Amino acid sequence: xxxxxxxxxxxxxxxxxxxxxxxxxxxxxxxxxxxxxxxxxxxxxxxxxxxxxxxxxxxxxxxxxxxxxxxxxxxxxxxxxxxxxxxxxxxxxxxxxxxxxxxxxxxxxxxxxxxxxxxxxxxxxxxxxxxxxxxxxxxxxxxxxxxxxxxxxxxxxxxxxxxxxxxxxxxxxxxxxxxxxxxxxxxxxxxxxxxxxxxxxxxxxxxxxxxxxxxxxxxxxxxxxxxxxxxxxxxxxxxxxxxxxxxxxxxxxxxxxxxxxxxxxxxxxxxxxxxxxxxxxxxxxxxxxxxxxxxxxxxxxxxxxxxxxxxxxxxxxxxxxxxxxxxxxxxx
Length: 332
Description:
By secondary structure, the chain is of the alpha/beta class. Helix content is 51%, strand content 15%. It has helices at 19-27, 48-58, 72-81, 101-112, 128-137, 140-143, 147-150, 167-172, 184-194, 215-235, 243-260, 269-285, 289-324, and strands spanning 6-12, 35-41, 62-66, 87-90, 116-123, 155-156, 161-166, 199-209. α10 crosses α13 (289-324). The longest helix is centred in the last third of the chain and has 36 residues, at 289-324. The chain starts with 5 loop residues before the first strand and ends in an 8-residue tail after the last helix.
């Protein structure tokens, strides 16, 4: 490995209150030889840029680059290109790496021969609502079979949270897809797997994640997840997994059942069945009565927003194709 073994890349936007902790947690990692941190700063409404520039002045290992468009995938690529180490560690501007994270990831890379390793997205809410969202996201009823949400045995998977990459592998497949606002991690991991690489899940790698703090922001987040997932599937149909269809299928069934069930009662089985599953999932995951009640709102917000985003994207794509004979140009 070269003199600086590890490059930590951090896209940052509106993270003035959390960026310093994220960067300092990266700088504190123990690596075989050396470490560099590159922060790609997008236009922000707070002092994110000032914090990044300050960190650059106090530690020579920190570099700062601009991300004028504010797209996460573009910022990640700019930070990767602004660094040179053969191992690339992706970190978000609001995440804090635990002690030993990078050393463990490098050891797993070397032991498995994987091109990317990652672990568990560990929700750490600071309000009762955020805690409840975190419990929902870490449950199978909320996240399906995505192992990075709830844990499980180590092994090869389709995607992981964040990621520690072999630079050579991601450069060979073209880095992150800069047309994607969301789902860029999954799409990159798919291309890495298609090129013959292995994506490895290590449950010992945990990184804290702060869930959304309101119904509105949660709905927006999951609506974007669904929207961009159908775009990725249109590019890579073979990347489809069963969990990708659960939310749009459930959304369609529940709303069709409610709309037509008043005329043909058997269709009410779909909304009634979902309601029963919602009750069971909320009781199983909630720790208190208030948390169970919050989950009764949080789960359908996640499911129906994701499903609506996915379905609306499909409908717009189909309408655009009929009108012009081509795929529609989707705004970011």
